[in-house]
Amino acid sequence: MKKTWFFIMILLIGFFPQGSSQTISSPNVILMIGDGMGPEEIKLASLVEYGAENLSIMDQFPVQAFYKTDNVDGELTDSAAGGTAIATGQLTKNSVISMDATKSIRIKTILEYLRDDFGYSTGLITTTEFAHATPAVFGSHTTNRDNKKEIKDQLLSSGIDLILGGGREVSYVGGADAAKSMGEKYGYTTVTNVNELNSLDNSSDKVLGVFGTINMPFELERNPSVDPSLIEMTSFGLKYLQSKNNPFFVMIEGGRIDQAGHLPLYFENKTLYNAMETIMFEKSVRLALDFAKKVGNTIVVVAADHETGGLQIHDYSNLDNDLPEEGLSRDENNRRRIARVNEINASWLSTSHTPTPVKFFGYGSDFGNIVIDTIDDVFWAINAALGSFPTIRNDKWSFTDSSISLSFSIEDRDYSTTGYEVTGEFENGSTYSSGIIPVNLEKNDFFNVTIPITNSSQRFTFQIKVFDGTESTSSLKKVFDGIEETSMNSSISSSVENAVLSPIFAIAFGIPLIIRKRKVLQQTS
């Protein structure tokens, strides 16, 4: 009899997932986004800085692919929708920050998955204001990218370890002194100039850097004794996050590449400003790649949310050999860059975003050999590189007086999900658990659970946990007041967040299935 029970226990241990160790690999993830950076922008920067095509460090990445950037409606994307696709793996409408196309359900982001489910340290670095669309999509959720104060509050309250960017004088910050008071309120050590950044050690629990006025200055206008460059922020950020002794995720954005592309066509230095921003971004990528090769176990992905301006390079046969060089002063190198831009014949089609396909560059993985064809595939490539952790999608809920009926799908690219569990708690203290339910995604990816309720007027908080191997790797949490599901719109988001009981899964409230609608792309003028 004892032997029989022994073998039963062994079978049970092997059959059900445990929570003792992690099943995905845990490399650092450095995601670098050149906002508005198309292939011609990369080529221009390479010609100016290195004197030949294909010398950009990005062109030396082992994994490369072109992809389209249209939004859920098949229209030209903006940075909010493009960034959301990269951050969540789902297409949405323009102006929407990490919410679905109906603007009603929050979508959990790659930063939130890695921080909440795998214990990653996290960071956001940008040359735009820190509550701008691209950084916003990784750590906040709102219906409109212009809700800057709401985005700021969400970013700073979400537990992100490092935030560096512009915005020192914007209305939701209010200057250097106000920035420091704001950071202190949220538990950040706050710096507002380059000297303060350079004086920081790695002992600070969380670091907030707010520089510039609105955005960081364009590189040609930047005072190096006041504001750090993207290269300096990247260098500090990588060292700081490494010191946390956890795997880390950081998004680093060259945001003013896009803003140079938006400059008027009559602005004589439009090409120069764009080239300078892309050069600084490329050098930051070079720094990140060197870091990855040195420390190992690090994935570097370079992507763009769209192209801006329709840059076209016509002729560069007049380029001389007077290249920028390491050892020369910043002023001398900039003088050479200005001269070289003037030797290149280039033009712009517009001041707007274009449908030009942009490029994915990857290092540190084969990214699961995912076919990267559309912008949302960037998320799935990173997901595959990390071990294809599952995500919860298409959740639907219906109610009677005695039960809540829940249905949802699990998307897991390598079918390694082993089970899920639904748990909940009523406000009277009673609890519910489905127990761990085994699944086989090769046979079924849609699941149903019926939760009995005894009093429909009670608030009920419940959570789906999805297990992948030996760790809970995905989750979704929702709160119901009686039989009415609490909406996720911004007017009540704070009350919903306060009702969430487990901090590990506080961000993921729901992920709908988005059906893509493809339309013929039209170029803006």
Notable features of this structure?
single chain; 525 residues; Alkaline Phosphatase, subunit A; 22 strands; 14 helices; nine-stranded mixed beta sheet; disordered N terminus; alpha/beta; six-stranded antiparallel beta sheet; Immunoglobulin-like
Would you kindly provide a written description of the structure presented here, covering whatever features stand out?
This protein is an alpha/beta fold. The protein folds into two domains: 28-386, Alkaline Phosphatase, subunit A; 391-505, Immunoglobulins (Immunoglobulin-like), CATH 2.60.40. Helices cover 29% and strands 25% of the residues. The protein contains 14 helices and 22 strands. The radius of gyration is 24 Å and the shape is globular. Residues 1-23 and 486-525 have low confidence and may be disordered.
How many β-strand stretches?
A: 22
Under the CATH scheme, the architecture of the largest domain is: 3-Layer(aba) Sandwich
Helix content: 25-40%
Q: Going across the major beta sheet, what is the strand order?
A: 2-13-8-1-7-3-4-6-5
Outline the low-pLDDT stretches: 1-23, 486-525
Beta-strand share of residues: 15-25%
Number of domains: 2
Overall geometry: globular
Characterize the largest beta sheet: strand count, sense, and whether it forms a barrel.
Answer: 9 strands, mixed
CATH topology (fold) name of the largest domain: Alkaline Phosphatase, subunit A
**CATH class descriptor of the largest domain:** Alpha Beta
Instruction: Output the radius of gyration.
Output: 24 Å
Which structural class best describes the helix and strand composition? Answer: alpha/beta
End-to-end Cα distance: 80 Å
